[in-house]
Amino acid sequence: MTRKLSWDGFLNVRDLGGLPLANGGETAFGRVARSETPSFLTDQGWRELRDHGVRTLIDLRCPSEGGYETRFGLRRLCEPVFRQDDPEFVARVRDVRDTATFYRVLVGFSHDSITRAVAAVADAPAGGVLIHCHSGRDRTGIVSALLLAVAGVPPEAIADDYVATRAALEPRHEQDVAGAETPEDQEWLERIHDVRPETILDTLEAVGDPVAYLLAGGATADQVERVRARLAA
Predict the structure, then answer these.
(1) What string of DSSP letters covers 22-54?
(2) What are the pLDDT digits (tens) for 109-156?
(3) Using N-to-C axis directions, what is the helix angle for 99-109 and 111-123, rounded to 10°?
(4) Does residue 205 fall inside a structural domain?
(5) Which CATH number does the domain housing residue 32 bear?
(6) How confident is the model over 172-195, as a mean pLDDT?
(7) Which of 41, 53, 122, 164 qualifies as a cystine partner to 223, CB 3.0-4.6 A?
(8) In 3-state terms, what secondary structure has residue 94?
(9) Distance between CA atoms of residues 56 and 127, nearest Å
(10) How far is CA 98 from the centre of its chain?
(11) In this structure, are residues 80 and 60 in contact, taking their beta carbons and an 8 Å threshold?
(12) 86 by DSSP, 3-state: which?
């Protein structure tokens, strides 16, 4: 099997299988995938998603970002990492100008929400799980990093998975930059596309022990073990 997936309409989708484990072996294919919002999928893309074995979709976006209709009876769970209408969150990120700082704010401010998203992977019924936000970069990047860390994937390999988003989204990034109306918009687009390994490594450092982080956020020891079993078995 291959980590890089091709579902029609998607640019940024990959399986979390095939990554090395610190104690030997690798993460299992077909258990968890990560992507941008399924709103981008065509009818063919939805069939390809289903045929990959996905049965549960975990949506990390804000309710204000809009929903989508799943196909083929697939299950969609909404576990927003933050809410854009939360005045405390807005105040926390108002002056943040770099991704690493934004991620550090998220793993602190959204501790419980991130934990619920990880726990949802543990609690998903049989079949593959797809986690996604809008572009599959920030919220999905943080949750994916935690899942992989719990499974036992070394930080360097987690960073390799994270930075793959940059190349995947390059065509859309170029289109967005070309359509930017002001220099400020262009600068913002360049900044959010600057996906660097040190950003997620810094985030993992901020989290500390991923198991302790999840337990403190409300996950049970059984949920943590089921995350590990889903990815590392």
Answers:
(1) TTSSBPPTTSEEEES-GGG--HHHHHHHHHTTE
(2) 999 999 999 999 999 999 999 999 999 999 999 999 999 999 999 999
(3) 80
(4) yes
(5) 3.90.190.10
(6) 78
(7) 122
(8) coil
(9) 7
(10) 18
(11) yes
(12) coil
